[in-house]
Amino acid sequence: MLPKCERIRDRNAIKAARRDFCEYCYRWGKGEVHHIKSKGAGGHDVPDNLIHLCHECHRKVHDGKIPRRVLREIVGKRTT
């Protein structure tokens, strides 16, 4: 069995991606920063790959109910 590579996280990039609302449904409150392209698939901790989602929307993404394409469109429309 091959050893797992250590994941390097850019804590500053993740912190900067945090919002007070879900960027998908605009629900206010706590949530999670999601990697649009997963770390395992080579996604990096950069603003274009990070989106803040509420817990419900985050689950929907992982269940395949919100396409990655839609998340990329949201991130592409950001002004800051």
Protein architecture, described:
This protein is α+β, with helices and mostly antiparallel strands and 80 residues long. It has 3 helices and 2 strands, in the order αββαα. It has helices at 11-17, 55-62, 68-76; strands at residues 32-35, 50-53. It has a two-stranded antiparallel sheet. It is globular, with a radius of gyration of 13 Å. It starts with 10 loop residues before the first helix and ends with a helix. The mean pLDDT is 90.
User: What's the number of extended β-strand segments?
Assistant: 2
Anisotropy-based shape: globular
Quote the beta fraction.
5-15%
Backbone structural class: alpha+beta
Q: How many helical elements?
A: 3
Task: Average the pLDDT over all residues and give the rounded result.
Answer: 90
Instruction: List the strand order in the largest sheet.
Output: 1-2
Tell me the series of helices and strands, N- to C-terminal: HEEHH
Q: What does the main sheet amount to?
A: 2 strands, antiparallel
Q: Rg to the nearest angstrom? A: 13 Å
Distance between the termini: 43 Å
Helix content: 25-40%
Low-confidence stretches: none
